[in-house]
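Job type: complex structure
Entries:
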Amino acid sequence: MVKQSQIKAWLYLLPAILFLGAFMIYPLFDVFVYSFEEGYNFASQSYFGTGSYNYAYVLRDPYFIAALKNTFIIVIITVPLSTIIALLISLGLSSIKPLKDLFQTVYFLPYVTNTLAVGLVFMILFKKTAYSDGLVNMFINFFGGQSVDFITGPYWAKMFVMCFYTIWVVLPFKILILTSALASVPKVYYSAAEVDGTSSVDMFFKITLPMISPMVFYLVITGFIGAFKAYSDEVALFGTDLNSAGMNTIVGYIYDMLYGNSGGYPSYASAAAIILFAIVLTITVINLMVSRKTSIR
Amino acid sequence: MKIVLKNLTKKFPNRNKKQGGDVIAVNNFDFEIPDGKLVGLLGPSGCGKSTTLNLISGLEKPTEGQIFFGEDDVTSLPAQNRGVGLVFQSYALYPHLTVFKNIRFPLENLKGENKLTKEEMEKRVKEAASLVQIDELLDRKPSELSGGQQQRVAIARALVKSPRVLLLDEPLSNLDARLRLQTREEIRRIQRKTSITTIFVTHDQDEAMSICDLIVVMKAGEMMQMGKPQEVYDDPVNLFVARFLGTPPINVFEGSIKDGGLYIGEDRVLEIKTDDNKSGDVYVAVRPEGFILDPDGPLKCELGRLEVMGRDVSIVSKHGSLISESGTIRSIVNADNNVDLGLSHVSFSLKPHKVYAFDKETEERIRFESNNG
């Protein structure tokens, strides 16, 4: 009987296993293999030899180092900031009554708005054109400051816009998750704490935060993974030639190595992809370990 | 600490805006709870028991009226300054904290001159824990405890800051039957030991009757009757109280008073004298233990079946004038009585002090003196 039910179970799983195997697991394995094959060529399916040369090359490539640096800056700035801002906004949303639905909708709008429309808004805000310096520069000028070229100007200005954009794009989802997490904390805990004379700051740190911590960890983990894989947002802001703009990311570097102007180096792309995979895996494992240690059970 | 409620009223705005007006949860409450007593607030769901408790705890503000703890007017005092310990129906133990930290939680909030050192806190926590006998459980998380243990932790957490008043909101409703019996004795024991004035909300009359010094019966936001459990049981002021107390419930009949007699249907069951020679239709209510098997008895019922309970026998029978929801009369007689199940009818005479008459309109008690002895 056990055997038969097991066969049935495997049968039900078969379609998923086949597709995942063909389109997920095999390619992953293949990328790993490519990363050790020097000068692999798609057209001729040939390579010169095997070894760790691809890794050595990628890790010495100044473009990769720049991409690595950019990615880390984006991750380190946007993940904590966006989570904290989302938490503050969610706390605000859950403690107001009138217009709550309106605000919730407003905060969620970026999530359902087309990327191109979002890009346009940022153009109006930051881009220098023949006619204007952009809304933000008008603001800076108004207070007596000098115009800054945010799109083609200094590195810090570009990075500021990049982080601003990234935070803005990821906020709606985080707010959505956190408001529902906050709503799911039973009110009776707050009543109990009130009777015991707990200050509202203590209530937040001793009750609210621990109770919603699983959701916060979920957001931090997915936030890290998402930020490490940043690419499309950079393209939306700075165009496809990210290397010359100095704003490339690891995924951007991989893409360039595969298809870009200098393209046609699948081996280097594979090596970079494996390095990215290793970084994301490490960070995620650390995150999970921390969250296990502090979780409820 | 005695607690005095004066004209206490709480109105909530109606959720259904079309209906408008307010919902009155607690209406003009006026009573005094003596120091050191265990008092049960008793009533069906939605009668305002929990609201009353929340008003006393300070979690809700009254619309009108005043609350005194001893001589202090605490009406406008916020919850944390009243010195109340509150045990919630769901216990509200913080799931991410151990039992020890849960119990310590109220102490961490003490400020100024009341601030405790770590050692003092630990001592107080251990005292509270040993009072409710959970000394070995201090390192566990609430999810690793049984319902009864969680209950004890909740009580310990309420007691740890030595409150002036202990409030328990349906403390036993989440426990199974056996544990409920055990825990109510436990509450009684802890209350006796600490002699903190304790108010205990329940919809279960058994619970309230068995452990409370005083019970307050409530209906739809109004206090119906307050007194010692036995007094209220023996001397209900209206039909609601009579029906609410007692298991099996009281048997209610359509009846009347005429010519110095109390009638159930056409059966003249008692010879009575009322104050002002009342007559007319009334409700007659008879406690299950108020029936005496008597072949010549005035109340003739259609015999149903017997339920043997060892010491007692419960006779289930029918009468045309009965209006109890169950549709059957339950009478409890001593097991020594032999009931012949072959007969189709059974006759009872009634114990006068177990029979009550109530006005048909107001459902208020009509007091009478019985000439049956």
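Summary: The CA atoms of residues 312 and 336 of chain B lie 8 Å apart. Chain B touches chain A through 25 residues (CB under 8 Å).
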